[in-house]
Write a structure and sequence with these properties.
Elements (H helix, E strand, L loop, with lengths): L2 H29 L3 H5 L9 H18 L10 H6 L6 H21 L2 H5 L1 E4 L2 E4 H27 L18
Antiparallel strand pairs: 1-2
């Protein structure tokens, strides 16, 4: 395998791993919340967890799927935040799972020139690699918000890394 393809596969695998970790954590949070809590907002300037999931699906689709696959951008961002019902917890999980799966497939299938090509998304100019990084960090950012809101609602540790020694030292 040539070094370019090896680097691409390493990038895509690691982005996919991080996206799967965020999905795993979001599912742990949602398992602890009622349908009502999912749509509740802490205050008027904040979003519900359900809105954050809709927002993640919109963002991942725009940056990670449509842009990299050269598809039409059909995102209607404002609806991600104005929606206040219409999806059950199971439907939101499935929508997020499918969106993440489709994005990971788009990353893997993209030819190297698409990962290097610059394109404008939401007024920003990034390469396909830049979009992959954006999708990964944006998902992680909102996963943290979902985790915090869940901790506030449940007043308990979420156990994301139960059984893992997080004090283990680095090995060469």
């Amino acid at each position: 395998m040539d070094k370019e393809r090896e680097l691409q596969e390493e990038l895509v695998w690691n982005a996919g791993y991080r996206m799967n970790e965020s999905l795993r954590m979001i599912k742990i949070c949602l398992d602890q919340l009622s349908e009502e809590q999912l749509w509740g907002k802490p205050n008027e300037s904040s979003n519900s967890i359900a809105n954050l999931i809709l927002h993640l699906c919109g963002n991942i689709t725009q940056y990670g799927i449509a842009s990299i696959q050269n598809l039409e951008d059909e995102r209607i961002r404002d609806e991600e935040f104005s929606t206040d019902s219409g999806y059950s917890k199971a439907e939101l999980v499935k929508k997020l799972e499918n969106t993440i799966s489709d994005a990971k497939r788009a990353f893997y299938d993209a030819p190297l020139n698409e990962l290097l090509r610059k394109r404008n998304v939401q007024g920003f100019n990034f390469s396909g690699v830049g979009n992959i990084i954006h999708v990964t960090e944006h998902l992680s950012y909102h996963t943290g918000q979902i985790a915090l809101w869940t901790k506030i609602l449940q007043n308990k540790d979420l156990g994301f890394y139960g059984g893992v020694n997080l004090n283990a030292k680095n090995e060469s």
